[in-house]
Amino acid sequence: MRRLENILRDKTRIVVKVGTNLLTDKLTGLNPDRINSIAGGVSHLQSLGYQVALVSSGAIGAGVAARRLKERPKSMREKQATAAIGQPILMEAYQSAFRGHSRIVGQILLTKDDFVNRGRYLNARNTLSVLLDDNVVPIINENDTVAVEEIKLGDNDNLSALVANMIGADLLIILSDIDGFYSDDPSRNRGAELIPVVETITPRIERQAKKSGGELGTGGMVTKIQAAKRCTSAGIAMIIANGGNPRVLQEVVSGEFRGTLFLPAAHRLNVRKKWIGFVSHPKGSVRIDEGAKTALTRHRKSLLPSGVLEVIGVFKAKDTISVLDVTGNEIARGVSGFSSGELARIGGRRTGDVETIIGRRTHGEVIHKDNLVLLHE
Ligand code: GLU
Q1: For 217-266, how does the pLDDT look when each residue is reduced to its tens digit (9 = 90+)?
Q2: pTM higher than 0.85 for the full model?
Q3: Eight-state DSSP code of residue 94
Q4: Which CATH class is domain 282-374?
Q5: 226 pocket-lining for ligand 1 (C-beta < 6 Å)
Q6: Any idea which fold 2-273 has?
Q7: N or C: lower Cβ tally within 10 Å for the chain?
């Protein structure tokens, strides 16, 4: 696949994500053959010159088997306790598998806050960079034991896309227990076809994802397409392939593989814009009129107070907010120059009046164009 060759030519960073279904069995726990084949594939990529981070699920799955539970626990407390037991079992298995390839591993457990809070984000990024530059394999999971519902990312597909953004990867490979993204649900329609390349993620593809693969792991296809959106719009390619094939990673880098490649958008956003658009979480939103929408999307202008119709939520100046069009569709994200209280007073007013109304000096823009990311480019 020529286009994949271009993406991989620079030999930079790759994130590999492995799902629970591939790694664990309810009764027997972790599948050592799978862990070994993943370790083999990752060390192969490293020996070709790539830096590789691994995002691995399976903590709860391994804990279920260790506790001899009949099924995955439902309550948050039980899940957390089970993850506390399973996470070291998972790490031990990886450590011994990678030792067989003379590689060392490091454990990184992240929560949503590590992405939302810019200070913590930069700290995590620095740690990962040191490990990657040293050819250590960072093994990343959500910190399930502390992440209660409100602060949970919830699925490792989205986590792996955030990690890919964080470390400036060129490619995210999601290893699942199906071959890739299909034209229809392959478990119900035998005529469903594997789609080898997705150029852009259209609303049709998103609808299709809702229909298929719903039974898989925590996420299923919906979260995989969310991850693909996060990646491709930030200039990162993503692949879904079957991790049941022990040589899958070797085949991906050789360019001959069975799976789906999501192509990155042509332009790359700078690191700050990536953080604004795809990593930070909006604290509130503004609804804007048609004129302002055209100014933003066609003429790439800043958002001015005059175009703001409504302010939703409570936020401070410098928080990330969503920009909605008249019908409520999110069209952009950006860093607000004003708090929600200030915006409620200056929405619809001329820029020249703003300082008099709020009684402080300002640059006048609600969101300056340098701090604005359009979401549907
Ligand atoms: N963090 C969870 C675990 O290790 C998995 C989340 C997911 O499967 O997406 O069990």
Answers
A1: 445 888 999 999 999 988 899 999 999 999 999 999 998 899 999 998 86
A2: no
A3: H
A4: mainly beta
A5: no
A6: Carbamate kinase (3.40.1160)
A7: C
